[in-house]
Structure of NADH-quinone oxidoreductase subunit B:
Amino acid sequence: MDELRDLNTMPVPSELRHNVFVTTIDRFVSYIYNWGRKRSVWPMMFGLACCAIEMICAAASRFDIARFGSELMRPSPRQADLMIVSGTVTKKMVPQIVRLYNQMPEPKYVISMGACATGGGPFKEGYNVVSGIDKFIPVDVYVPGCPPRPEALLHGLLKLYAKIERQSVREVPWYQKGESEAIPVPILGPDLIDPRRLPEIRARLAELRAQQGGSPEASAGSEKGA
Ligand code: SF4
């Protein structure tokens, strides 16, 4: 390793640059680590709607996702590092999806498969459908289509590999000190509430009450009391 560290500062004559491999320690470690990791991404076994049928086809013999090292679909989030959101995301399902995402160990990735998961698809603005799962959890790769064919999902998987290849062990959040924060689970009531937006919702509520005659302070106070 000391030799490699020396390489970082060692000047290389321009005529030799194409013949020697110069790297930094963290790039070298990242390369080895990512090379091994990208070929064993285990998806979680769950589907939401018609797109899931195409995802199942991708895992069957004709398209054979095993060629890319992802044949082990795990029924538990604790054993998976890839969530494929395949299908229509209803408001009722969002709390479960966020909870499952929080239960996956890091490093973890998300593929949004199909028009529904990415933006609501044909059901966009529907009373019970969210306009994209990326409003709640971070998405790494979007696969377009309604439904995307299995080849499209495999292409998305290759795009994910390319993203993993570019990650640096020095910069990714899961190798920093301390624990990563879980995403607050949305609250399902008459509508879906994202706890991260509560201050914004309370402010808007106070504003509306003030417009209707009450003072903003009184409205905010009664909201806190509630
Ligand atoms: S994108 Fe199309 S195929 Fe996929 S879940 Fe939505 S409606 Fe079904």
